């Protein structure tokens, strides 16, 4: 709040985005925000956030109601903060000499190919690239919170490309495209990558997208202008036309902004620095900020080259990494591969792994004896493995590939990956614990290959024995009458109208008011039932982990018939078929639970 009102170092839009992201869906924080604004006597902001957060007057604390009542006669209306008229800032900020149409946001293969074409157009000629990265600041930290680079800026002499790493980059083929970009930026003799304070960007890039790691460790293209700035201010300060000799005068602008001011007399506008860089589309102000941050590096290099009358001094910094950059990247890699702080875990895991299944063994195993983790490029395969009853963790779209290592070590899982991530993950796992399924085939064929490779035998009772949504394997059997009452409540039907025979029925398993199982807190997720068929099933199966409700409908029968071939064709055949019916586990009389109507 001080940044936007007093120091004016953050734009209104930026502040609104970040605050809205923090308080959304949290009534306590929403109320606290309005209280803070009332305490600061900002009635415009109070009314704005009351409207944004749908907080009615009568629901606010008494003292806030009184405050608003006192301000009733104010002529100010509840308008967005972005519409509040403010004094024009007296600061004249640096602006790049390019038009808006020369700033290209890359979120499709066509624009990405345009970037690659520009980068490799004159492959044998020296090229200077301004480089920077942006990510969303993290304020509401939780155990699942993750910071990751969202936008990478690549500034060329006449164009600036803003690469959507978060939503687009992971969809590119890693072998031919991602690694090609990584090599060109960080490990190419013809490239000079102009950056500023690269150590932070490198650590975040390594943690967010491990595919850059190998090229980052080379770093031969780097020219970190923060190192140049430090030495020039100490030894050749007179080349800066806007430097002052009075050491008692300090610039309010720091870092790169100060460097730009020293060279051009105008600082960078940093008011969008703490934006929500994960929101799409980016605002125009964000696009301009990102473009400025990268292109100014190209301009600074030109300025220094002209004033130093030679590029030899600048080139002496090329490939000179910031202190401890290699160890920072190595630490990021190592942290991605550690499941706990205990240094003895590696010995424990090696011991566990030695007793686990290996694909070279002829021993047939059952789904409950093996666990997988699939990376975010194999979602379809992960769901198909769950259909067969295999315990399978599926990484989220935004999870780094190296999270697979954590699951593998902490939970003794086999990693399934593909492309460049597979090569990286395999180099950090024990032989046989990381495997690449066939590429460019349907998920069902990939599943068949996995089951065959690891000698997994599937029986009819395995199919649909896990929740395909969350991987849970613990289900509660619920009487159909309980579910009929719940369905009526969810769909706003009166019991007396649809289920008069259940007026006096007391549910055995479901707390109808809370819409959970008794003594449990997970809300039930009931979708797919209609007025026509909701009475058709006597039993339902509820995943205790996520609350998803299943039943044995037509979809279940179709899926079961399709997958029954797994028990015949996808299991490994051996010479002990005469004994296969003697498996102790085959005679288990446990309940079988099926994914009924949900689609895969």
Question: Your description of this structure?
Answer:
With 600 residues, the protein is α/β, with parallel strands linked by helices. The protein folds into four domains: 2-83, no CATH class; 100-332, 2-Layer Sandwich (Nucleotidyltransferase, domain 5); 343-456, Rossmann fold, CATH 3.40.50; 475-587, no CATH class. The chain has 22 helices and 15 strands. Strands 1-4-3-2-5-6 form a six-stranded mixed sheet, sandwiched between helices. Strands 8-7-9-10 form a four-stranded parallel sheet, sandwiched between helices. A three-stranded antiparallel sheet has the order 11-14-15. Helix 11 (255-264) crosses helix 12. It starts with a helix and ends in a 37-residue tail after the last helix. 35% of the residues are buried. Residues 75-89, 141-145, 246-252, 337-360 and 570-600 have low confidence and may be disordered.
């Amino acid at each position: 709040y001080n940044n936007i009102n007093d120091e004016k170092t953050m734009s209104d839009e930026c502040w609104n985005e970040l605050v809205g992201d923090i308080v959304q869906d949290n009534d306590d924080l929403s109320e606290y925000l309005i209280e803070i604004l009332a305490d600061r006597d900002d009635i415009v902001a109070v009314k704005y956030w009351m409207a944004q957060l749908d907080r009615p007057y009568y629901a606010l604390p008494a003292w806030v109601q009184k405050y608003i009542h006192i301000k009733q006669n104010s002529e100010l209306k509840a308008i967005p903060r972005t519409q509040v008229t403010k004094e024009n800032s007296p600061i004249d900020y640096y602006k790049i000499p390019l038009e808006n149409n020369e700033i290209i946001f890359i979120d499709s293969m066509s624009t990405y190919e345009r970037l690659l074409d520009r980068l490799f157009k004159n492959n044998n000629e020296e090229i200077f690239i301004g480089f920077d990265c942006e990510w969303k600041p993290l304020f509401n930290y939780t155990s699942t919170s993750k910071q990751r680079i969202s936008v990478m800026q690549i500034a060329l002499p006449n164009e600036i490309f803003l690469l959507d790493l978060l939503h687009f980059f992971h969809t590119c083929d890693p072998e031919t495209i991602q690694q090609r970009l990584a090599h060109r930026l960080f490990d190419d003799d013809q490239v000079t990558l102009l950056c500023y304070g690269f150590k932070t960007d490198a650590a975040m890039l390594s943690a967010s997208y491990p595919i850059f790691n190998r090229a980052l460790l080379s770093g031969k293209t780097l020219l970190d202008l923060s190192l140049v700035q430090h030495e020039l201010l100490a030894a050749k300060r007179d080349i800066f036309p806007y430097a002052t000799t009075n050491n008692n005068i300090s610039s309010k602008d720091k870092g790169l902004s100060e460097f730009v001011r020293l060279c051009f007399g105008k600082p960078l506008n940093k008011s969008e620095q703490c934006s929500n860089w994960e929101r799409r589309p980016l605002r125009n102000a964000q696009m301009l900020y990102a473009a400025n941050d990268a292109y100014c590096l190209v301009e600074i290099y030109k300025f220094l080259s002209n004033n130093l009358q030679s590029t030899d001094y600048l080139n002496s910094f090329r490939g000179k990494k910031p202190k401890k950059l290699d160890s920072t990247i190595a630490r990021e890699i190592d942290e991605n591969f550690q499941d706990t702080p205990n240094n003895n875990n590696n010995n424990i895991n090696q011991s566990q792994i030695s007793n686990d299944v290996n694909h070279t063994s002829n021993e047939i195993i059952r789904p409950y004896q093996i666990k997988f983790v699939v990376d975010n490029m194999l979602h379809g395969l992960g769901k198909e493995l769950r259909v067969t009853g295999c315990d399978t963790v599926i990484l989220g779209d935004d999870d780094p590939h190296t999270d697979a290592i954590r699951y593998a070590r902490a939970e003794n899982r086999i990693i399934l990956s593909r492309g460049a991530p597979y090569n990286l993950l395999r180099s950090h796992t024990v032989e046989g614990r990381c495997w690449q399924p066939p590429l460019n085939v349907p998920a069902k064929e990939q599943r068949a290959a996995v089951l065959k490779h690891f000698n997994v035998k599937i029986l009819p009772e395995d199919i649909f024995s896990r929740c395909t949504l969350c991987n849970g394997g613990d289900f509660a059997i619920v009487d159909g009458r309980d579910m009929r009452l719940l369905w009526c409540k969810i769909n706003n039907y009166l019991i007396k109208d649809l289920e008069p025979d259940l007026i006096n029925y007391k549910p055995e398993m479901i707390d109808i008011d809370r819409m959970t199982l008794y003594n449990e807190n997970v809300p039930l997720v009931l979708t797919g039932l209609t007025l026509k068929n909701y009475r058709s099933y006597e039993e339902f199966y509820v995943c205790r982990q996520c609350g998803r409700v299943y039943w044995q409908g037509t979809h279940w029968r179709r899926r079961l018939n399709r997958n029954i071939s797994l028990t015949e064709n996808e299991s490994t055949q051996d010479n002990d078929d005469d004994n296969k019916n003697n498996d102790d586990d085959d005679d288990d009389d446990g309940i079988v639970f099926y994914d009924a109507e949900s689609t895969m």
